[in-house]
Design goal:
138 residues, alpha+beta, 6-stranded antiparallel beta sheet, 6 strands
Length: 138
């Protein structure tokens, strides 16, 4: 898929009720230069870009961006499970890993998922249990 077409699809889809948008990364070690941006629709469509580089500590000078449209069964439910957690730990306010948006009939809910926040572990579990090129962190 072409990156411009996927970016346009992500922008359009983000405004639909029920859609979840996530942007961020781990920004440490081998993943220091990697950013995932993705939209998940209620029917488990995943539209994403994954950016890597340049990581100066590894002597990299180029950036790579890939774009994908996939169907991942159960992904929307899994992401709702991450975002609906009410027992959220304090996290580290100085370091945001991911920003998540959820479009509802009444508007837009936005939240930060930080290191130490229990949702960060739940999100990582989604990444591990549902591997895709959309979150191919090192």
């Amino acid at each position: 898929m072409s990156v411009p077409n996927v970016l346009q699809s992500m922008t359009q889809t983000r405004s639909e009720v029920g859609t979840i948008y996530v942007s961020g990364g781990y920004y440490d070690g081998a993943s220091a230069d990697q950013t995932a941006r993705f939209v998940v629709t209620p029917d488990d469509q995943l539209i994403c870009t994954f950016q890597s580089g340049p990581n100066a500590s590894f002597g990299e000078t180029e950036t790579s961006v890939t774009a994908h449209r996939l169907t991942v069964p159960g992904l929307h439910r899994a992401m709702m499970g991450v975002l609906s957690q009410t027992n959220v730990g304090p996290g580290d306010d100085d370091f945001t890993n991911f920003t998540a948006e959820q479009r509802t009939p009444s508007g837009l809910n936005t939240t930060q998922i930080n290191i130490g926040d229990s949702r960060a572990d739940a999100l990582q579990n989604v990444f591990v249990s549902m591997p895709t090129p959309c979150w191919a962190f090192n």
